[in-house]
Amino acid sequence: MASDKKIAQKPVRPKARLPRGFRDRFGPEIAAERRLIEIIRGVYESYGFEPLQTPTFEYTDALGKFLPDVDRPNEGVFSLKDDDEQWMSLRYDLTAPLARYVAENFQNLPKPFRRYQTGLVYRNEKPGPGRFREFTQFDADTVGSNSPAADAELLMMVCDALEALGLKRGEYIVKINSRGILDGVLDAVGLPVEERERRGIVMRAIDKLDRLGVSGVRALLGEGRKDESGDYTKGANLSEDAAAKILRFLEIGAVGDDFQTVLRDIVGDNAKAAAAVDQLASIVTLCRENGYSAEQIAPDTSIIRGLDYYTGPVFEAQLTFPVTNEQGETVVFGSVAGGGRYDDLVARFTGQQVPATGISIGVSRLLAALTARGLTADVAPLVIVLGMGDTVSSFRIAKELRAAGVRAEAYVGTKKIPDQLKYADKRGAALVVMEGDDERAAGNVTIKDLKLGAELAKQVESRAEYLGARNAQVTIARADLVSEVKKILEQN
């Protein structure tokens, strides 16, 4: 006989996990990033740039990633359809949304239009060590000026920002090249501008020179390359001779302030490339005359940038000091910012060419470099006021400390004092403040120096020695709380 009782079903619980290429961040890292952004913001605003914020989602065609002949676009972007059956994508940079904004508001904007923007961007690309699908960029752009002065200003401004963050001359360099010069080289090897797709493959291959080396780039200029995981990237199918000429151009690398002579010899009688050399010279001259030396800003033929929309000068800020990577190897950190001129991007919307130039700082990557260099300031020390039976009093103490500029938290968890002290340890608190009934009646409070207590516990060998050392716990008059807390924090 079948039972009428229903069998209890186990609840279906989702597994707590992150999508590949994404990560959680917490506490000190976020605080350090916020300070970094504020320093850069201060420099950019001092130059007269103003903030702009655009949505995280844009229509896919506005981003320049057109739908392929499949059910959803998958060309480096994350996409979905809205309720009007239109494709939308998460922005993959902050430049394409800027072009849409300028096209939409062109008549009302000052020309040139100067803005900065910081925010998360998304790349639907294969994640790897240090390569995430979500990361923060900080951009500055000038739209509406074709003057080399607009490019030069960005280079000088990013130098000022890097130095404001604590980097010294010689620890960074901003390298500059021009797509116009490379166009002349590609024309010379038989790859005309009409072959847009193959040119794009060449640009992206060259942009990976520092990561893949000459052999990896040579493979991508030829038939293609299979990486360590077995994934295959289609190449540009250039002849060996054409690939060799491009690589020779890249391997020239850094050129001195006589670069006009060197580069004019390379481009020969190609008028467009010669004009690009002269434009580059104007930018470098303006930087030099404003006190920015070759140690800070220098021409380099290996700088190309991988995005297809660049049309003229391109630049890249690189850090030159060695750091230790996750494998314990000593490496040079490399690129932390890049950009260039993109005079055709707004014309996609309006049909009217609007000159533009911009630079983008990879905030997460720069933060990692500054952390490795010891240039990120510690978060202000935390004082925790324990809950000793009078919540009103503990909140009042915390408020008083905050009013005096001390980072303070009133504990709101369990009433057990050992648990409260464990919590303070896990939070990395510098001090705890305790006001029990007896102390309150006597008009006192007790301050426990957790940092000193931990140090003493490591250093002394006996309890007598511990008690004879600088006291890690003091009871003082309640009226002296703020001054005593500040004095102890200064000693630490």
Question: Using DSSP, what is the number of strands?
Answer: 18
Strand content: 15-25%
Rg, please? 29 Å
Query: What's the overall average pLDDT, rounded?
Result: 86
First and last CA, distance: 77 Å
- Mind telling me the CATH class of the largest domain? Alpha Beta
Helix/strand/pairing class, anyone? alpha+beta
How many helices? The count is 18
What kind of sheet is the major sheet?
A: 8 strands, mixed
Shape by Cα distribution: elongated
CATH architecture of the largest domain: 2-Layer Sandwich
State the low-pLDDT regions, or none.
66-72, 462-470
Give the CATH topology of the largest domain: BirA Bifunctional Protein, domain 2
Tell me what the structure shows.
By secondary structure, the chain is of the alpha+beta class. The chain folds into two domains: 311 residues, Bira Bifunctional Protein, Domain 2 (BirA Bifunctional Protein, domain 2, 2-Layer Sandwich), CATH 3.30.930; 110 residues, Rossmann fold (3-Layer(aba) Sandwich). The strands form four sheets. It has an eight-stranded mixed beta sheet with strand order 1-5-6-13-12-11-7-10. The radius of gyration is 29 Å and the shape is elongated. The termini are far apart. About 3% of the residues have low confidence.
Short description:
The protein has 492 residues and is an alpha+beta fold.
Key traits:
single chain; 492 residues; alpha+beta; BirA Bifunctional Protein, domain 2; Rossmann fold; 2 domains; eight-stranded mixed beta sheet; five-stranded mixed beta sheet; 18 helices; 21% strand
